[in-house]
Amino acid sequence: MRLFLALELSPRERRAICQAIAPMRKAAPEASWVREENLHLSIKFFGEQPDTAPGELTNILAAIATAQQPIDLRISGLGAFPNLRAPRVVWMGVQHDPRLELMHHDIEATCAANGFALDARAFRPHITLARVRDEMPLANARALAVAARAVGYKGVQQVAALSLLESTLTPAGPRYTQVASIPLGGS
């Protein structure tokens, strides 16, 4: 099973984001745009795991989740890794929140203590909108940057659970299936 931990967005929030970024999709049609139903905020990628991993992860993450309260994700701003001039990943930002940072840290530490690989990259909360496999033509990158600057989207999404998702790769793109929901605050 290919697993990752995420904070899922409501269908309404996902729809609003997709409507807001429609001009960006038009500006860069060669990008692989994330399907609406797949928009989320990734917390930790576990990669290929045995069939027993969901139960084990649910158990070790329950204590962390119980200690957290539901969190409001403040969604706004657009950018790309490494940048909009040469995008590889196009994203929508999630404003800095110390509680989210602390939760991520606790998840990483707990998972590492239980034998799961530690993610060495800095945590930069974002919602992936698109991936760019090949170098984007300069004119399209410029058009994407102009379209991104014109998007004034701001949203707030309360999240009350961690979602353990299975990612199944298909020719039409990844399909995500929730295998566990771990409530925040023990609710």
Would you kindly provide a written description of the structure presented here, covering whatever features stand out?
It is built from five helices and nine strands. It has a five-stranded antiparallel sheet. A four-stranded antiparallel sheet has the order 3-1-8-9. The longest helix has 16 residues, at 98-113. Helix content is 32%, strand content 36%. It is globular and about 50 Å long. A hairpin with a 2-residue loop joins strand 8 and strand 9. The mean pLDDT is 95. It is α+β, with helices and mostly antiparallel strands.
Give helix % range.
25-40%
Q: Name the structural class.
A: alpha+beta
**What order do the helices and strands follow?**
EHHEEHEEHEHEEE
- Residue runs with pLDDT of under 50 for 5 or more positions: none
How would a textbook summarize the main sheet?
5 strands, antiparallel
Contiguous helical run count: 5
Radius of gyration: 17 Å
What would you call the quaternary organization?
single chain
Mean pLDDT: 95
Q: In order across it, which strands form the biggest sheet?
A: 2-6-5-4-7
Overall 3D geometry?
globular
Number of beta-strand segments: 9
Percent strand? 35-45%
What distance lies between the first and last C-alpha atoms, to the nearest angstrom?
A: 27 Å
What descriptive keywords fit this protein?
single chain; 5-stranded antiparallel beta sheet; alpha+beta; 5 helices; 187 residues
SSE topology:
Layout: E1 2-8, H1 11-20, H2 22-27, E2 32-33, E3 40-48, H3 53-67, E4 71-81, E5 89-94, H4 98-113, E6 126-131, H5 138-150, E7 154-159, E8 161-170, E9 173-183
Antiparallel strand pairs: 1-3, 1-8, 2-6, 4-5, 4-7, 5-6, 8-9
Helix pairs in contact: 3-4
